[in-house]
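Contributing new complexes? Match this layout with zinc ion.
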Amino acid sequence: MLATMRTSGGPCSTICSSNSAFTTAGIIMERRLRKLLPDGRFCGVSTKRSRHMASVRGGNNKSTEQKLGMALVRAGIRGWRLRASDIRGRPDFYFSLEKLAIFVDGCFWHGCPRCGHIPKTRGKFWSAKITRNRERDRSVTRKLRRQGLMVLRFWEHELRADLGRCVARIAQAMDHRQSAK
Ligand SMILES: [Zn+2]
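Output block (do not edit by hand):
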């Protein structure tokens, strides 16, 4: 049931089913990344540039997230809080009563299969970084579901294309959770 609620383009089907297999994959990924990123940093990038990239990340997420927040308010959907830091992965929206976690994934940073692209410059770095983000997303989703939470992930482009549909899916998920009680 939960799997059907996932947003489109999800990489969930490719993940390993067992925890140990995932951990192994994670370790391999980290090793690969470490080779590409000595000291976990992108060599050759100035602090200024690095800070700029970080701000781009925050800025994009924030505006998309704000739009969804405003749409939820307009739709009269309540009971959520933003960036719940006590929940694994810090969901962008968290409904405590329904135990429903909503993530808004930026297309670039989270490697959207539809519009995410790897820049030509420093391609290896970006590809490693984005792959790591995707691995983390999958791991968070799986762990939260194991804890009995419902997880919905939206791509940034889905929110841009049809905000109403995203809100409707959240409302539907809430109904589902409430009726399951
Ligand atoms: Zn996208």
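Reviewers usually confirm one structural detail per submission. For this one: The first strand starts at residue 80 and ends at 82.
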